[in-house]
Amino acid sequence: MSADSSTGTQHAAIILHSDSYDRVTNALSLASVCLAMGMEATILLTYEGLKRFVKGHYEDVEETNSELQAMIQQGIGDGNIRGIEEKLVSAKGLGLKLYACTNAMAIKGLDLEDMVDEVDDIMGLATFIQTARSAAINWYI
For residue range 8-33, what is the model confidence (pLDDT) as tens digits? Predict the structure, then answer.
């Protein structure tokens, strides 16, 4: 497995392209597990993946199919699953680095100020590829 040459720590790089509730929570869960195992984790939000991280849109489920929507709402209501905001805050506490894609932000007419506070900054693809190049794990979700 590859390690970050500057720290010697293994790294997971995730491109989050989907705004699907289950995929967003999956990306955050994977990042959290990596972080808990002592790895570093970076998520790059692109295109539809940006939508969940615009202020006020964490828990939007309108575009989720009705069966999954009902299961999500039931699970959160029962306390059996954690919502996106709670998972994100937890992952950030473990050291998650969260970036919004420069090009996707421009296409969607978004600024960093539109995004939730947990988004660290805007990052271009070339910079992300440098991160992903040395990562032990790369996921596209």
Answer: 689 999 999 999 888 999 999 999 99
- Give how far Cα 45 sits from Cα of 2, 6, 9, 58, 67, Å: 23, 24, 23, 13, 26
What does pTM read for this prediction?
Answer: 0.86
Q: Round to whole Å and give the CA distance between 116 and 33.
A: 22
Instruction: Write out the DSSP string of 21-76.
Output: HHHHHHHHHHHHHHHHTT-EEEEEE-THHHHTTBTT-TT--TTS-HHHHHHHHHHH
Domains of the chain in sequence order: 11-140 (3.40.1260.10)
Name residue, tokens 């007419």. 109
Which residue do the tokens 């539109």 mark? 114
